[in-house]
């Protein structure tokens, strides 16, 4: 039987909890070191260690059968995947923030301003639904330093503890979406029985935690 593949984040906020969840499912495998694929010795499964941003597409395209990723990344990539289970970790929100000394205090005041983000798709929808015209500056990381450098008036980024905003002299003032890690799959997987068995293991780990 061809092994299933599950894609998880290689490094970052969701990596450790994703590995922990799979280990708690009774799966034996080596954590990511340099190989991007780790076989599971006691279940027909391979773990793929990827950048989180690529996970939804890998699942949509059938390269991976399952994936663990933040809802924010799924919304941003606009893929067709099936939400199988919320996982209860990686909770965060996508927020708009400005410098502590900024005069901007309401959504309406963003009109005509520039906002730096790595989430242009979600931000664009949010601004449209609030009738705000702002200039979205898409960058691929370190968004928090953008206002200080004069690159933008505001940012839109994920906030978890709030530590990153704080240490960069920023204050949040609008919530765009909240997010947590979810297990995703796709309709019509070749290995439906194995997929179901894995989902059940995940669900019983979550139930035991309640
Ligand atoms: C997010 C975000 C901030 C940080 C905020 O990055 O871009 O850098 O987390 O967390 P805090 O509020 O606890 O300080 P993430 O870990 O999602 O990594 P990525 O942007 O590289 O995918
Ligand atoms: Zn990322
Ligand atoms: Mg980041």
Count the beta strands.
11
Q: What coarse outline follows from CA principal-axis ratios?
A: elongated
- The number of distinct helices, counting runs of at least 4 residues, comes to 6
Give the amount of beta strand, in percent.
25-35%
Ligand catalogue = 1-O-pyrophosphono-5-O-phosphono-alpha-D-ribofuranose, zinc ion, magnesium ion
Distance between the termini: 34 Å
Strand order of the largest sheet: 2-3-1-4-11-5
CATH class of the largest domain: Alpha Beta
Indicate the CATH architecture of the largest domain. Answer: 3-Layer(aba) Sandwich
Overall pLDDT, averaged?
95
Q: CATH topology of the largest domain, anyone?
A: D-Maltodextrin-Binding Protein, domain 2
Computed Rg = 19 Å
Keywords:
210 residues, alpha/beta, D-Maltodextrin-Binding Protein, domain 2, 2 domains, 11 strands, 27% helix, elongated, binds 1-O-pyrophosphono-5-O-phosphono-alpha-D-ribofuranose, binds zinc ion, binds magnesium ion, magnesium, amino-acid biosynthesis, ATP binding
């Amino acid at each position: 039987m061809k092994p299933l593949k599950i894609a998880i984040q290689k490094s970052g906020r969701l990596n450790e909890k994703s590995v922990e969840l799979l280990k708690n499912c009774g799966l034996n495998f080596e954590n990511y070191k340099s190989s991007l694929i780790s076989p599971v010795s006691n279940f027909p499964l391979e773990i793929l260690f990827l950048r989180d941003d690529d996970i939804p597409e890998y699942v949509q395209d059938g390269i991976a059968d399952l994936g663990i990723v933040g809802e924010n990344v799924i919304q941003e990539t606009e893929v067709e995947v099936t939400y199988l289970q919320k996982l209860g970790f990686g909770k965060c929100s996508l927020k708009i923030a400005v410098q502590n000394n900024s005069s901007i205090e309401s959504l309406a005041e963003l009109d005509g301003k520039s906002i730096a983000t790595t989430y242009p798709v979600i931000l664009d929808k949010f601004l449209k639904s609030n009738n705000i015209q702002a200039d979205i500056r898409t960058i691929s990381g370190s968004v928090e330093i953008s206002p200080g450098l004069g690159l933008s008036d505001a940012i839109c980024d994920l906030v978890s503890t709030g530590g990153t905003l704080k240490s960069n002299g920023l204050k949040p003032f609008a919530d765009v979406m909240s997010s947590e890690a979810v297990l995703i799959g796709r309709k019509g997987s070749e290995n439906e029985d194995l997929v179901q068995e894995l989902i059940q293991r995940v669900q019983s780990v979550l139930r035991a935690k309640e």
